[in-house]
Amino acid sequence: MTTQVLAALSPVVLLIALGVLLRRRRFLDERFWPQAERLSYFILLPSLFFHGLVTAEIEALPIAELTLTLVAAIVVVAALTLAARPLMRIDGPGFTSVFQGSIRFNNYVGVTLAAGLFPENGIALAAICNAVIVPTVNILSVLVFARHGTVRLGLRRVARQVATNPLVLASLAGIAAKAAGLQMPPGIGPAMRSLGAASLPLGLLCVGAALEFAGARRWIRPVAIASMLKFGAMPLATMAVALLVGLSGEALVTALVFQVLPTASSSYILARQLGGDAPLMAGITAVQTVLAVATIPLVLALLL
Question: What's the predicted TM-score (pTM) here?
């Protein structure tokens, strides 16, 4: 398994590094990166999820056990993060960044790893993980922003954040279409497959381009706490729940992969919009992305 993980992780690392290099060298206009990320998030990745679910044999996948494992583990780690706040010695906006760093995940890294590890069911398992994790972490994060951030949110805005997420909508649509026995018309399937294939390399380049390390040097304690919760508590909680509900095989590996991913660059945008500490969030994201190169194979080797 360790060899498989390293083989699947190597293109992820190379593409993220290329994204860093392209941004540092200003090979592309600065305006390219936000537009590329928008294209990936709203068009390419949803196409990948929808096509992957419609064409996969999801009837054989343990969707209920996978859902319970992911949600329960995230809630446990969220509670631990709230309990650990006195140790952080930071203000409310700073705590929102640590909270996001402990539970959020990077879609592009997770999908690429799942597809590399399990060519047949990886995309479908990744789509299910996204459909479960995205609303869970968004609801928890927005509630923490409402309590500790500088921008106050109403329930309507919280609901809209979740209900309009393109990855959740694409995953639910794919599951519904598969359950109804619908087939994609000729030409549509190959087109969606091509769009989906483009999402992974472009998304990983955007991950590299978005990395900012300057903030990490200023807040060693909160960055360390967020990373310990993400790379330590989260996979341990996931494994414990998986043992209780009987989750195993490819679904268990995919769950662990998604739960030990670094936090997403979109966390920075959320911190900026909802009154969090955006520079600290950028530092947490950058440090976790680098640490993930070692922690992902290490965690899987120790727990499986």
Answer: 0.86
Asked if residue 217 has pLDDT above 70, the reply is no
The torsion angles phi and psi of 62, rounded to 5 degrees, stand at -80, 75
Cα 188 to Cα 179: distance, rounded to the nearest angstrom = 19
- The runs of H, that is alpha helices, within the chain are 2-24, 32-39, 45-55, 63-83, 92-103, 107-117, 122-148, 155-163, 166-179, 188-210, 220-228, 234-245, 249-259, 266-273, 278-303
Q: CB neighbours of 249 closer than 8 A, spacing ≥ 6?
A: none
List the domain boundaries for the chain.
2-303
**Widest CA span of the chain, in angstroms?**
58
Q: How far apart are CA 199 and CA 45, in angstroms?
A: 5
User: Is residue 35 classed exposed, middle or buried when 0-12, 13-18 and 19+ CB atoms within 10 A define those classes?
Assistant: exposed
Report the C-alpha gap between 203 and 38 in whole angstroms.
Answer: 10
Tell me what percent of the residues of the chain surpass a pLDDT of 90.
42
Residue 229 near residue 84 (C-beta atoms within 8 A): yes
Q: pLDDT by residue (tens digit) across 244-281? A: 999 999 999 999 999 999 998 778 777 877 778 888 88
| CATH architecture classification, 2-303 | Up-down Bundle (1.20)
